[in-house]
Amino acid sequence: xxxxxxGSQAEPPVLPGGPPKKVFVVTGPSGVGKGTLIRGLLERVPxxxxxxxxxxRAPRPGEDDGVDYHFxxxxxxxxRAAAGDFVEHATYSGNRYGTLRAELERRAASGxxxxxxxxxxxxxxxxxxxxxxxxxxxxxxxxxxLRARLVGRGTDALEQVDERMRTAERELEARGxxxxxxxxxxxxxxxxxxxxxxxxxxxxxxxxxxxPEERTHP
Length: 218
Ligand code: ADP
Ligand code: 5GP
Hints:
By secondary structure, the chain is α/β, with parallel strands linked by helices.
């Protein structure tokens, strides 16, 4: 990588400690199964870390601060946004969500690939800030299936489900913008498709989990 010439007006690097090995952005509508697919991905592909986002939304039952999200007050979030602490941030369903630069840098330092699970506006910002990030859009098999998953998850009141479905319509229009698309119809198949995209990028072997996916035998 070339250093900026002295006195140049270039923007500071997004990740001053050096870029992480790879940034994988998993995006798509709420309820499509991003979190579920990423859990399967982390089991199958070694050497990946999930970035913990910041949000102003209230914790759901069972969610822990620093594990599921960094839960911030609206004031703290805006202060950190003004200080440039976020690689990307967006408003979604009336709440703020963002990827902390420090979170990416810390994981980058470990030499691991970093997975971001974020909505579409944030994914666009990461594409600009980290141009070699790999972006994957997760699509539902149908709108009806997406709604059924949001309702079935049981974390959102029906009016929030309707709001998330309205946002999903806009997000689905953006599906062609990203490097890859995975339709999450059959979970096993979709997880393997996502894992294969990541493996091809990292050039790693499948983890030995005893599953049916393809293997390279010695
Ligand atoms: P997201 O992280 O995109 O908001 P989740 O991973 O929370 O979505 O999944 C939403 C709901 O859909 C969960 O209840 C999950 O168990 C279910 N789900 C995920 N993938 C599938 C699938 N392929 N088929 C059926 N249900 C699924
Ligand atoms: P939820 O409230 O269901 O946890 O998340 C709502 C939406 O915000 C989901 O689509 C989720 O992927 C997205 N999201 C979570 N963290 C971030 C983040 O750091 N940045 C952005 N832009 N979106 C996020």
